[in-house]
Amino acid sequence: MAHPKIIVVGGGLAGLSATIKIAEMGGHVDLFSIVPVKRSHSVCAQGGINAAKNLKGEGDSTWQHFDDTVYGGDFLANQPPVKLMCDMAPGIIDLLDRMGVPFNRTPEGVLDFRRFGGTLYNRTAFAGATTGQQLLYALDEQVRRYEAEGKVTKYEGWEFLSAVLDENRVCRGICAMDLRGMEVVTFPAEAVIIATGGNGAIFGKSTNSVVCTGSAQSALYQQGAYYANGEFIQVHPTCIPGEDKLRLMSESARGEGGRVWVPRTQGDKRDFKSIPESDRWYFLEEWYPKYGNLVPRDIATRAIHKVVFEHHLGIDGSPMVYLDLTHIDRATLDRKLEGILEIYEKFVGDDPRDVPMKIFPGMHYTMGGLWVDFDQKTNIQGLYACGEADYSIHGANRLGANSLMSCIYGGFIAGPGAVQYARNVIKSGHTPSHNIYESEKKRQQEINSRLMNNDGTENPFLLWRELGDTMTKNCTVIRYNKSLQETDAKLVELLERYRHVNLSDRTMWANTSFVFARQLYNMLQLARVIAQGAEWRNESRGAHYKPDFPERDDANFLKTTKAYFAADADEPRFEFDSVDTSLIVPRPRRYDAAT
Amino acid sequence: MANSKTVLIKIKRQDNPDSKPYWEEFELPYRPGMNVTSSLMDIAANPVTKQGEATTPVTYDSNCLEEVCGSCAMLINGKARMACSALIDKLERPVRLEPFSKFPVVRDLAVDRSVLFENLKKVKAWVPTDGTYDLGSGPRQTAAEQEENYPLSRCISCCCCMEACPQFNDNTGFVGAAAISQVRLFNNHPTGKSLKVDRLKALMGDGGIQECGYAQNCVEVCPKDIPLTKSIADVGGQVMWQAVKDLFRT
Fold it and tell me: Alpha carbon A274 to chain centroid distance?
């Protein structure tokens, strides 16, 4: 039988793990990525990867990992795949260890583990403070090996435009654009896996990389894929605000003992060193004595917001609080956190070993994504999704160090699933007609030529800034229905203005503003899913917080939000699924002293 | 300088691989905390030269913007470095941006650095695992071994070391410091060392490790402070031993 041919879009942890599984099973992979896969956004993950290996004598278990994850996600995740991920996690760590990831070691030479948010166990394996980089490299090396053996063909420097669907709406390949020659090309395959990551660019500045626009997910949503739980956006409590992006300051800084504080008195102008302990307010430790600085991200983010905007205690009156490591000895800091301390040093100019860091929350991660079933299949036959691009696992809030694991888990499910499916497609002998490729290519070429020849006055980069400002203001930490309605109206306005985009560059060679303008359209469409989903959900759950509806409301909202695109109306419509809570009965989520 | 209200940036541009390069100047409003990538974003939002002429946004590679993906390498005031960590306040002005000179220009500041990824294939820079099925934990390693290998594993493939190297050019075909340092990393690994001989053989002969002229530019420009010269010395020793062994075997 012929080797199944599978397209994987995205070369981060999820895409590479799917690729490795497929190659190992005898399939051939066409691997598409905007950037060389070694430069994918997974490289930015810092603190670590969770697995209940229980190497610290704490009595940790995969069930406890499962419970922490479901509880941390405020019971919105379907539970069976979460349990499977937590069960597979220790084996995945072993595999990464065998692949040569330089995990930190204990004196006896076994893997070291540290604590992360939302758990009381040391469950996070780490390689310095650049764990994502080390994991990505290990998988990249394995894929390079398969590439050298001819089992993987890389298309680096290609942008995914759309899926090629046959007359029965079955996915038969993709349409993509070469980012140098700008040529639109279709590629047939028996199955397609989408592993295109997050959508931070919708919020303007975020901790995400430049390529994280959500464009591929949005294009597929516009082709009929469900997009689920889009309203759940994680705002990371500790970021370094910058001119071009918000740089992440890893949760591992708190895992290694970092403390968050502000001066107790408004307008305290003293240097931090002259502020005695009694005049410092360690508000997370005071409000959450059990978890302290390691409460989940949504909780820490809202606490910082409260201290800054309600207590008016931001440092020097600015929206910033201290994240303090200066009480920890330098050697420990260098051994365990060097990568992130170096980022702070390089981009801010202060040495965090001597001076507390100034940080503020920033958009970091989307829990929502393409809807998938427990086998990582989307509702479009032949189309799979995994990693941050899919919605499963994290519910209403993701725990730190669970994303790297969910990426690899997702790839390890999607890859073999796609191979099985592809073998059946080959067996069935049904080959799609040539026309479906031609017509999809033509559709994309027409979009390109319309955009290229548009006469108007709108600059795509300026439209993007307006999009980012609106979404960050109204769709992140605190949400009100009135401002969400205004947001959607603004998005409709931006979509209208988008029709008058005028490109300052009309050449057909490595034209980055043209590519960006295409992504922008998809960002605008997906932003409406986020805003409208948030408006519908009149409760507070995990990262989604409405002061007018401050409680979780399981009776009405223990539901997955599934958006689909109504092409005639050019807007999202919603359906709601019940959540599979068959393994752990939902209970109130409290991280303060009460539990 | 740091207080002036505008920042002057001169950029060497080139429309495509075959066309002639030319320079353009941009005058941007100064903001505290700006870096080279935020300046290039500002130009994209308002692509007008200092002389008031409309132009195109500048093409450049970028992704993570926190100096870990290795994308945005270019020559900044003549030095090979990452654009995201180049803070305007710390640069001499006017700021001069040029593409790397030893890699084919794609457009403007974007160059083709795929040669490094090809070299990583040649030196088999991977651990040959049996498969992804469950085989238990990996080999035990001491904390000291981890601490030697981790810095080597932080190479971001930016190619600054190759750009700065006087020996890295078409005449020598030199493989460059980055790939050699990866050989050291994988030869150190308890499982990875099973491919040691293959790796060392790939570094013998023309374009191999012998081309290194010990200029030490590599270690000076490496944004991740990787001990590249130590890697070259270490792997150079391994290659020599291998050559001696090969001699006695034949």
Answer: 40
pLDDT, tens digit, 9 for 90 and up, residues B87-101: 999 999 999 999 999
Q: How does DSSP classify residue A583?
A: S
The verdict on B23 touching A (C-beta cutoff 8 Å) is no
Question: A343 and B67 in contact by Cβ < 8 A?
Answer: yes
Q: What is the largest CA-CA distance in chain B?
A: 71
Distance from CA of B167 to the nearest CA of A (A): 26
A35:B137 CB<8 A: no
Q: Report yes or no: A150 at the B interface, CB cutoff 8 Å.
A: no
Which percentage of chain B shows pLDDT scores above 70? 98
∠A350-A354-A357 over CA atoms, to 5°?
A: 55
Task: List the one residue out of A533, A488, A481 whose CA is nearest residue A76.
Answer: A533
Position A339 scores a pLDDT of: 87
Give the SS3 label for residue A443: helix
What is the four-CA torsion angle of A143, A146, A148, A150, rounded to 10 degrees? -130
Tokens 């780490």 belong to residue: A126
**Residues 6 or more apart from A23 whose CB is under 8 A from it?**
A29, A143, A146, A151, A152
pLDDT digits (tens, 9 = 90+) for A263-294: 999 989 899 999 999 999 999 999 999 999 99
Tell me whether residues A245 and B141 touch, CB distance under 8 A. no
**Angstroms from A236 CA to nearest CA on chain B:** 16
Digits of tens for pLDDT over chain B (250 positions)?
445 699 999 999 999 999 999 999 999 999 999 999 999 999 999 999 999 999 999 999 999 999 999 999 999 999 999 999 999 999 999 999 999 999 999 999 999 999 999 999 999 999 999 999 999 999 999 999 999 999 999 999 999 999 999 999 999 999 999 999 999 999 999 999 999 999 999 999 999 999 999 999 999 999 999 999 999 999 999 999 999 999 998 6
Catalytic residue from among A297, A479, A528, A589: A297
Q: Is A350 on the interface with B (CB under 8 A)?
A: no
Q: Which residue has the tokens 């030869």?
A: B187
Query: What is the Cα–Cα distance from A311 to A293, expressed in whole angstroms?
Result: 19
CA distance linking residue A426 with residue A424, whole number of Å = 5
**A463: closest chain B residue by CA:** B45
**Which chain A residues touch B66 with a CB distance below 8 Å?**
44, 245, 247-248, 343, 347
Residue A363's alpha-carbon distances to A13, A132, A428, B171, in angstroms, are 20, 18, 46, 48
For residue B120, the distance in angstroms to the closest alpha carbon of chain A comes to 8
The overall pTM is greater than 0.95: yes
Considering only CB atoms, A105 lies closest to which of B16, B127, B141, namely B141
Res. A1: pLDDT tops 80? no
**Contact call for B140 and A109, based on CB within 8 A:** yes
The contacts found for B242-248 with CB under 8 angstroms, 24 or more apart, are B242/B197, B242/B200, B242/B201, B242/B204, B243/B204
Active-site residue, A297 included: yes
- For the record, the structure tokens of A424 come out as 């059946």
